Amino acid sequence: MSSKRASTEKIQFTIAALDALPLPEPGTRVTYHDKTVSGLQIRVTSNGTKTFYVFMRVNGKPERVKVGEHTYPEMTIDQARKKAKAIIHQIAEGQSPAAAKREDKAKGLTLAKAVDQYVTEKHRESDGLLLKPRTVDGYLKLLKPSRLTATGKRTKGGPLARLADKPIYKLTADEIKKIHSENLKLHGERQSACAMVLLKAVLRFYGIKIAQDPFDKNTREVDRIHIMKSGVAPREPVEHLLTHLGEWWRALHALPQSAVSDYIAFLALTGCRPGEPLKILVGDLVNGEIRLRDTKNRLDHVLLLSRQALAIAERNASGKAATDKLFPITPAKANELAHELPSAPGVPFTPKMLRSLFASIADELVSASTLKTLMNHKSQSVTDRNYIRKQKIQLAEAWQKVADHIEAVAADNVVPLFKSN
């Protein structure tokens, strides 16, 4: 509960006068202004603490600056007046002592503490919402220190762990580029990119300027760090999968039926992000629809299931409680099965490719605005966002078109949309 404010009074600061100041009522404080030095004041709280401040306007904005580190009587009246005059002179020069103090404090801020504050206070620019817990956990893991396992083996630690205790204001371009180069060898391109995305965001969050900033487009290209976009499947493997779609689909269905193989087929038929089906509960399946809750763009997304996708969902829901997961598997299990698939048709494959596969097929079969809706993408187009509305039947037909095309290609009953060169 904030303290109640009491009225102010102007007095001559003397030892006798300050010693005799009465205590305000509990929960309140009183401010007294010095008649000798304009701007100097002393604030008295209900517990008897007496603190000197300078109160003035800096560039038109009111600012209260604490005088020294001690309270009265450790800080004497003469000392307070002397320090107050120095602060007032600084303010008269257009400088903000409070801002300078904040900057000095920030200069000792380590990357680890800066990231902690960033993930707590950062709001997404697109919707003003705080970062999702999963995003926060992922960022914090990037700074996780190396440790010894039970077998005595040392873990790699997060890609930013070596910078965790470094003051962010002392980071240099060479240091950042060196860490990135080492991370590419130690952690791979994806983790290295995630680390640089976070570091770039934190530096921007604190307004830190670095000489020859490796993230600045105005820095020479040879001195810049080029960050790979995350979440996008590589182009060539997806193109290869598109031209071998029929044999890949047949190979998938030749495997023993399981929750994992059904999950992979479900991704191809719906265009979901790989993590989204893993959160679906049996109770989310209602009348041929599944509602994906709090997706990447923070909106719910309704899947209007094709006949093929519905059959998969109903098969995996059979005999389960409403609170059970529809696909009780882990990403690791999905990746294990993915490694079995290439050996059959010779198609390189990872589950992440299926969202791109779905979009590429749908792009040839439905309108652009319908495709955006199927993919759960927020449209930047004023026309799409404010005027175009899609009925359920249109969206259901679009999902069905993609599913029918995949099955037709697998059965050699249709001319493929994509051919080998």
From TrEMBL:
Residues 263-391 form the Tyr recombinase domain. Belongs to the 'phage' integrase family. Keywords: DNA integration, DNA recombination. InterPro entries: DNA_brk_join_enz (IPR011010), Integrase-like_cat_sf (IPR013762), Integrase_catalytic (IPR002104), Integrase_DNA-bd_sf (IPR038488), Integrase_DNA_bind_dom (IPR025166), Phage_Integrase (IPR050808). GO terms for molecular function: DNA binding. One of its GO terms (biological process) is DNA recombination. Residues 14-103 form the Integrase DNA-binding domain. It holds the Pfam family Phage_integrase. It comes from Pseudomonas fluorescens. It comes from the Bacteria. The keyword Transferase does not apply. Gene3D superfamilies: Integrase, DNA-binding domain, Intergrase catalytic core. The keyword Nucleus does not apply. This is Integrase.
